Amino acid sequence: MSQYKRTLITSALPYANGPLHIGHLAGVYVPADIYARYLRLKNEDVLLIGGSDEHGVPITLKAKNEGVTPQDIVDKYHGMIKDSFERFGISFDVYSRTSSPVHHETASGFFKKLYDDGKFVEQTSEQYYDEENKQFLADRYIVGTCPKCSFEKAYGDQCESCGTSLSPTELINPKSMISGNTPVLKETKHWYLPLDQYEPWLKEWILEGHKEWKPNVYGQCKSWIDSGLNARAVTRDLNWGVPVPVEGADGKVLYVWFDAPIGYISATKELTPDWEKYWKDPESKLVHFIGKDNIVFHCIIFPSMLKAEGSYVLPENVPANEFLNLEGDKISTSRNWAVWLHEYLDEFPGKEDVLKYALTANAPETKDNDFTWKDFQARNNNELVAVLGNFVNRALVLTQKYYAGEVPALGELNEVDQATLAEIGNLKAQVEKSLDTYRFREALKLAMDLARLGNKYLADEEPWKKFKTDPERVKTVMNICLQITANLTIMLEPFLPFSMNKLRGFINFEKLDWSELGRTDLLPAGHQTNQPELLFEKIEDSVIEAQVQKLLDTKKANDAAQAVAKPARENCTFDDFMKMDIRTGTILEAQLVPKTKKLLQLKIDTGIDKRTVVSGIAEYYKPEDIIGKQVSILVNLEPRKIRGIESQGMILMAEDADGTLKFVSPEGQVKNGSEVR
Hints:
By secondary structure, this protein is an alpha+beta fold. The chain has 3 domains: 6-120 and 192-321, Rossmann fold (3-Layer(aba) Sandwich), CATH 3.40.50; 386-528, CATH 1.10.730.10; 574-675, CATH 2.40.50.140. The protein has 21 helices and 25 strands. The strands form 8 sheets. Strands 3-2-1-13-14 form a 5-stranded parallel sheet, sandwiched between helices. It has a 5-stranded antiparallel sheet with strand order 19-18-17-20-23. Strands 5-4-9-10 form a 4-stranded antiparallel sheet, with no helix packed on it. A hairpin with a 4-residue loop joins β18 and β19. 40% of the residues are buried. Its EC number is 6.1.1.10. Homodimer.
């Protein structure tokens, strides 16, 4: 650790074609922020770099679908993402974007340096071409039938049904997503980074030199290297991105995987004129925070790019996380199966730290984990409220009650007191070790153990029982509780910054460095604390049920959108059809059939007569809402008794894909008794 003078932390650039969700936060941004805040508390030279990834095919696809320009799309989502990060408290030193002029200049210059140094190979290959639109098609512009599972809407790079990685030429019956036509194969020239040439170096650098990397990261790297690396194209036939800065490259841009990681460099350039100190000084430590889908890019491809360029430091660690699922299902932006950060911030004001806590306590550090709203509620109510909030509140309320908020003097310490105070220093060492090795879930648990220590100490010492009989002893007990509270504001600062700022206000305490953590005299005798409030509040079942229902409604809408109409029934004769007498009528009265949930008893004016009809629509319509509604009714249906009521006809209803029933009614008001033909 000591050989580094500074730390440069990068966080994966979120793709600017949609808002942020909890999977992004748990995988990348919450752990990156914890680590950066921790190093800042230690007064280390540290930068946390972020930005939006604004190039690539999905951007152009979304722009085409919405009838706007790619710049319109990235402007919209960059603004939304940046605002969400700021509101949530991710403490970037800079949050940039890859459509900026500085980035274009930096990425273009990086490519040109490698090109001039002969680090690329040129290759001509056949790629699909849309003759109507006169353009080569990126993999995501091609859709067809998956050769593995026969899913008919597989993309040219991956089948989203079975997850198989594909190449466009493997698709059965490929179609251009732009014109809908069958594309043709046409030759095109591109520049490739020959990763196979870097294979021996990568084996030594990663497999021998970085065995301390997380098993999921090291294992994926080993699998890629052992399977043999191939040259990868660094350019693309596209009109949105960083133009390839060489002759004969008209209509070509830098491939987004080559362009995006250079965004870390260009963002640092925008932040400080001393950017080279962080990127090119061997005494700088580079750490990439990413999700597991980006491991190959940050551990194999980007380091190979940096190695080829020759003047940059290489990542010291890449603590990638696995994926976070949602309520037992994979998070999916296309299916709207997600908890969106901007919506959470609106619906849970002042609870930024609750989400940070839940995502850290359940972080997918070694395997995929599942976020559930019930677990979120339990983390808040059983841990933040019942453990941390409970201890702090009891300590401060008793201080107000006994000493008008003034910190009492510390008296003689017994063995329990000494052991309790010593444990603060022990926990500090353990938390440091966990944070230094990127085990944030473990670090948070250890930090919360300080609050558990305080609760146990209070419960064992019972100052409320001793106050009248041994007031001097109570002063010592309360002093120790207040010292624990002050230490909590330092130890939990990286994890719960909003809450610790609030707690510092309660105890009238300034923000201190990590080096002060472990001291047992942070609050001197006579120090005046303020009137406390609740640090956290319980989240009620109704709030959680509303969030679960929101997801269930999403699932229902997805199922409805994908539903296919039932096939037609067997043919009937024209004479059979003509026997049906369907008329327009108006509902005059409506009431629930007793002891049923589904049946309504209706009185309907059919224009012929006024008759009773029993209909199973009570789950979808309240009686008072449908009086006066004009409907279509089969008037010559043979009467039948339903729950003892003679029903004389049937109302025509349409069943939607989600199972709801809707009236089949005339477009405008017509005379009751009009025939439906």
